[in-house]
Amino acid sequence: MPIFFVAGTGQHQGKTTTTLGLAANLQAQGYNVGYCKPIGQKHVEVNGKMADKDCVLFEKLLDFELEPKVHSPVILASGVTKQYLQDPSGFDFKEDILHAAKHLQSVHDVVIFEGTGHVGVGSVVDLSNAEVARVLGSRAILVVEGGVGNTLDQITLNLALFEKAGVPVHGVIINKVKQEKMEEIQAILGPRLKHLGVPVLGYIPYDPTLSYPILYTVQDAIRGQCLLHPEGLLNKVQDYLAGSLIDIDLVDHLDGILLVVNPHRFKESLELMIEKSQELELERVPIAGIVVTGDGRDGIQYTPDEFDHPYITNNRIPILATRYETYDAVVMISRIEVKINTNTQWKVNRAIELFKNHIPIEQFKDV
After folding, report:
1. What class is the 213-334 domain?
2. Is there a contact between 171 and 143 (Cβ–Cβ < 8 Å)?
3. Which residues fall within 8 angstroms of residue 82, CB to CB, at 6 or more apart?
4. Mean pLDDT for all residues in the chain
5. How far is it, in rounded angstroms, from Cα 232 to Cα 254?
6. DSSP secondary structure string, 89-105?
7. Is 3.40.50.300 the CATH classification of the domain at 3-210+341-364?
8. Interatomic CA distance for residues 274 and 286, integer angstroms
9. Which distant-in-sequence residues (6+ apart) come within 8 Å of 130 by Cβ?
10. Domain boundaries, the chain
């Protein structure tokens, strides 16, 4: 029975999207696919126990009932690593992972384990990704963001950790490759990795839609409050404009625009957006939502009535309020790190489609 361990060369390389694509496409081939996040950090509570957030996403995709001890056996919550370093004898992390793996292998055709961070993460509790992959007897899949120099450095560094642990590397997936760089990167990385004796499983092009946040994420980033139309908080944000600099020609998309404006310029900025939309004869409302900024003082002093406007009401545009000034709010929004979750189904679908179109699934069958 094949066991795959999906690791990355760091955060935000595409481990979860790769795992999604692999799991969904194997499932489409008729395989009963199991999933586990052996070591997690960001967690949610499930039936009174902690489980990694990614498990919730895969519970829906693969249609299983989430059992923390099986699908998320080790959670390094706040304070756990310190406790471990003080007295490792009080923890059975390795046994917990092996118990979960044994159960999953008994009920699934294929099991995919998703790592955390780069291959060395987890060493603080003597269970780096490389060590977990070794204990599981799995084959490693390494995911790295597309590039040349830094990409090769990161691949070499992380492969060394797998090699030291004696973990066979099934291959490398080059992710987020900019289309204009695709041929160049393939021409350089292909021969180099062949020289290293590591198969390239495929190259996945960069897709900006996977980086779009939703308004829920924006609300969290700016520590905001929704004043109007919370049903639209799942709207995706493709670009943003500061109210004092509205020029629709500056944005890359004429859809999903987030307007960030102080309350004194709210009406003026909104009507300018409406005017520009009419000039361009847009068929749909280009505004995903509006952030009304503050003056930096604690507390949000606005009321929904202050932003009552027929365009807002008719199009059900969400209004978020934050205490931060416009510049600070824009900086916070620009720094949002986006993860796929159950609220972004279009991203799930796109990740699966990208994998299907660019990574031959036959490479993972009959291993």
Report:
1. alpha beta
2. no
3. none
4. 91
5. 18
6. GG--HHHHHHHHHHHHH
7. yes
8. 9
9. 7, 119, 120, 140, 161, 162, 164, 165, 167
10. 3-210+341-364, 213-334
Give the integer Cα–Cα distance in Å for 77 and 123: 15
- Number of C-beta neighbours around residue 308 at 10 A: 11
Q: Tell me which H or E stretch contains 50.
A: strand 49-52
Count the residues in the chain. Answer: 367
- Angle (CA) 347 256 286, round 5°: 150
- How many Å apart are CA 163 and CA 298, to the nearest integer? 53
The pLDDT, as a whole number, for residue 321 is 95
List the one residue out of 107, 156, 154, 111 whose CA is nearest residue 132.
Answer: 111
The strand pair at 110-114 and 49-52 is best described as unpaired
Rounded Cα distance between 192 and 171, Å, is 13
pLDDT tens readout for residues 146-171 = 999 999 999 999 999 999 999 999 99
Contact 174, 152 (CB under 8 A): no
In sequence order, what are the beta bridge partners of 319?
228, 290
Q: How many CB atoms lie within 10 A of CB 228?
A: 21
Per-position pLDDT tens, the chain of length 367: 689 999 999 988 999 999 999 999 999 999 999 999 999 988 888 777 788 989 989 998 899 999 999 999 999 988 999 999 999 998 999 999 999 999 999 999 999 999 998 999 999 999 999 999 999 999 999 999 999 999 999 999 999 999 999 999 999 999 999 999 999 999 999 999 999 999 999 999 999 999 999 999 999 999 999 999 999 999 999 988 886 656 655 555 578 999 999 998 899 889 888 888 888 787 777 899 999 999 777 766 788 888 989 999 999 999 999 999 998 999 999 999 888 888 888 999 999 999 999 999 999 987 7
